[in-house]
Amino acid sequence: MGDKERESAPPPRRLALFASPTPRGQEVAAVVRGTAEWCALEEADIVVVIGGDGTMLDALHHMIRTGRVRPVYGVNAGTVGFLMNRYHRSMNIIERLHHARSIAVSPLAVEAVMQGGDTHCVYAINELSLLRETRQTAKIEISVNGRVRIAELAGDGVLLATPVGSTAYNFSASGPILPLDSQMLALTPISPFRPRRWKGAILPDRSRVTFRVLEPDKRPVSAVADQTELRNIAEVRLAIAREREMTLLFDPGHALDERIVAEQFAH
Which of 97, 113, 195, 247 lies in disulfide reach of 235, CB 3.0 to 4.6 Å? Predict the structure, then answer.
């Protein structure tokens, strides 16, 4: 992934607003809206996202689907706001954007093959997780770069996380937190039963990972790519989509890489 921090954000030009529909999101949006001139999302050079991390993921996925990804500056009007900047009622959005630092991140390209043979291609900015659909333990074969590394993982499932997503579900599943510039992916089992001692792996982000569901009729598995769920999975193939690189903007001293380091020392 290389050096993720660049000298500065591009000078503010045409701005669009993407706000959470929650009461708090709309309240903050009303304040921010009065600090600048705005245009339609498809005409913008920079997108200001107001809400929580879920709203940020919604905005990024919307831009990936439409094929025009612009730099994004988040304003926290949610709970955690890991991908967002702090909100102050007196904030000047133009000044914030002028001084913002940029960080480039790339999502996972997910190619999911269903039990019926259909294929769905989606993207995961945080992680792709495979989860058992019933009370039956999932059984999953894991391959890396065409070589089988785990012939049969038995448990609730498995996930592959980017550095951006390493502090989310991956961390809750006892996976490692990855620095943004680590050029790594976290492969983490979810409540594993066998092999009992396997705690996961850290892989170079050039790796291609394949999950194959074993005994799918008896042990159905779903795939969740951020907020997109696909059920009755046969196989999932994953790789970093460098051609879909995205730029996140942060206030100086409030950058995402610093938050990732700080998260490892949180009590």
Answer: 113
